Amino acid sequence: MKIIQGIKKTKESFVFKDSAQLKEPLVLVFGNRYMLESDDIYAEVKDLFPDGHIVFGTASGEIIDDKVLNDSVVLTAIEFEKSTIMVKRSNVKDHDNNEINLGESLMTEFPKENLRHLFLISEGSTVNGSALINGIEKVKDKNVKLSGGLCGDDDRFERTLASYNENPKEGEIVAIGFYGETLEITSANFGGWTAFGPERIVTKSKGNVLFELDGKPALDLYKTYLGEKAKELPKSALLYPLSVKSTEESEPLVRTILNIDHEDNAMILAGDVPEGARVQLMMSSVDDIVHGAYRAAEYAMRGRKKNPDLALLISCIGRKLVMDQRTEEEIEEVKSVIGEQAFISGFYSYGEMAPFNNQNECKLHNQTMTLTLFSE
């Protein structure tokens, strides 16, 4: 596996630490939304990698090595020496905003033989990530793992962009299939958030839209808890996500509020909130988040035969807001576990995709550190 990385600052060209000739590389480009809106961004990367498979995604902060950057674009180009990749894309508008159908359709485009892993870079501001994952899980083989994330837009929640071999645009979902018997790919996630306050029942919801808790408007209850911070919604909601437990036996999922519907007095979350689920508010500290990143890395490394050559990290914008000036500490913790040999890239997101520890089926998470580790 050959890897080179570069960084682009505003009104500057990409700067690369090392140089190498790569053949048909996978080129992952994560960056600030304003910079990826440039009409020239695809042409610029295409000039650097004429035969590259170029995948873009907007970020709420860019990760490269053990650094977290803002207002930049980070690029990681990977040539797989013994393995192959296939990239497919679709748009929610092509499927009448039905993410389940989109997920099913996208998955069927990938030949099954020797497919080891699927990595998703998805529109983050309008897509129901839970439904997208459910569609893929309906048709994919159980031995094929799935991970990825929802694109971010800092804490603005205005629009997110993604693309494959074209300028980034809204509504795009890009799937990267990894093929080859020599590939070792593992993924894991962990949060570090603690539930507090009374447990409430979801009495009215539809998909990822939450209307009522205990028969009362959910938004009114949430505003009561936030107090003065309610004026800063939806940004302030990132500091107090929801723990959602669908059944007594199920693992609790963390859900971030992406937007507010004042007309219907409802909250739009990154993933599904089924009726009958039990919900609690959550909070965290910097130390808890850092420890959560360490735990995620431990889970991702568990049982691996080789140390990873590449680590794709997707962490949540809510974690970044809590950590503030100490954000890089969670990346440093990950690096201390996976080793100095691994190239690290990634972004801060509106949602993370990975299975729970020791499970096969992928879920949408919020407020977690999610790792996908690669070696050949």
TrEMBL record:
UniProt cross-references to Pfam families, sorted A to Z: FIST (PF08495), FIST_C (PF10442)
SMART domains the record matches: FIST, FIST_C
Entry annotated with the keyword Transferase: yes
Stretches assigned to the FIST C-domain domain: 218-356
GO molecular function, one term: kinase activity
FIST domain: residues covered: 24-217
Protein name from the UniProt record: Histidine kinase
